[in-house]
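Troubleshooting entry. The earlier prediction with iron/sulfur cluster gave an output that would not parse, so I re-checked the input for stray whitespace and re-submitted. Clean input:
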Amino acid sequence: MTSQTADRVIPSFTENLDSVAPLGRESGKVGFISLGCGKALVDSERILTRLRAEGYEIVADVPGADLVVVNTCGFLTSAKEESLGAIGQAVAENGRVVVTGCLGVEPERIMAAHPEVLAITGPQQYEQVVSAVREALPLKQDAFTSLVPPSAVQLTPRHYAYLKISEGCNNRCSFCIIPSIRGDLVSRPVDEVLSEAERLVRTGVRELLVVSQDTSAYGLDTKYDPRTWHGVEYRTRIKDLCEGLGRISELGAWVRLHYVYPYPHVDQLIPLMAEGKILPYLDIPFQHASPNVLKTMRRPANQEKVLDRIKGWRQACPDIAIRSTFIVGFPGETEEDFEFLLDWLEEAEIERVGCFRYEPVEGARANALPGAVPEEVKQQRYERLMLKQQEISTRALARRVGRTTRLIVDEVDEEGAIGRTEWDAPQVDGITFLQGETDLQPGDIVPVRIDHADEYDFWATRLPAG
Ligand code: SF4
């Protein structure tokens, strides 16, 4: 059985559904397990929103649910194993399982491990997942209600939300199979994205996290299609999108950009950061710095002038913080390449860094590259990079001590509040402690002065508003 997506055919297994006796419940309880990256989380939110719209009840209790949906990740071999493990656990605890997401492109693998699974669909096949749930767990017609909450279902805490602006990717990095799983770039029209962002903010979201596979490429596939939003023309491209989001930020929300590649047109976004329309923050997955490695990785925006560009950004917006991820131990990476990367990090002074040891991904072209790096060398390079980054980040954070800035509150307990500055994204960057501030609420944005920093986190004092 197959089902057609935008540009390719993804197998979809629903045979086991035929043997399932419909339950005919008035309010089907659906458990949901979401694995993978922020983009997969957005897919989960969309599926949950549709299920809620149909009248299903979403429950946290997997054994107590009538059926469980598992949204899988299929990027790395370890992620596939984790996904298969989660499916197995859901089968053991509940028995009625629908699988979706990136691993769904390998239905044979899932069925071989867990033949009891009711249905399998691929990434972004929202309608197919909902149909599979509908078939396995039909609701009585009169259970159709207006259950959609005003801001749709979010898996992130209520005060921040991921805003997905496109699907797929036109790049062909040699270590990545995302384009073969998710297809080429398909951008959402800019007016649609801006309307969703406005709706989220009007229903209480205080921080929008813009995500995609390649945020800088937004709109390329639509030839920057012009659209109208609130009577103003915006083109479907990143600069116009950020201008529109800047308008929305005036309602009291932060806008943070993730997965930006350093193409020249990114320079146009820096003034919007300097003017406070979007946060002075760029998440750029550089992955390496050595030209040799970048070439074999086939990375986009692999230009010699990146260091100059970063310096230019820091001049135009001194407050900017840059986050990045790097891969060490890529096939062919020599000691010289690795030392080049360490020197580059020192010069670029990237504030926040995540590091991965290279791991082959089934189906990726990089698997055929010569010069595999031994595991112990990968581990040593990983430790050396993290140590170097600790020094850089300690220095960069110390420079912010004494500064005033804004903080968004993530949680409050009896000792005080924990939040993040404008320079820190949720889940991946550092946190800031506000001792004794117990009267705040998650999502509050307050002025603070930075008193102290270690290698990753800040301690701050709240300042009077205004
Ligand atoms: S930019 Fe490269 S790593 Fe990122 S999704 Fe596209 S092909 Fe994969």
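This one parsed fine. Confidence is low (pLDDT under 50) at residues 1-26, 141-149.
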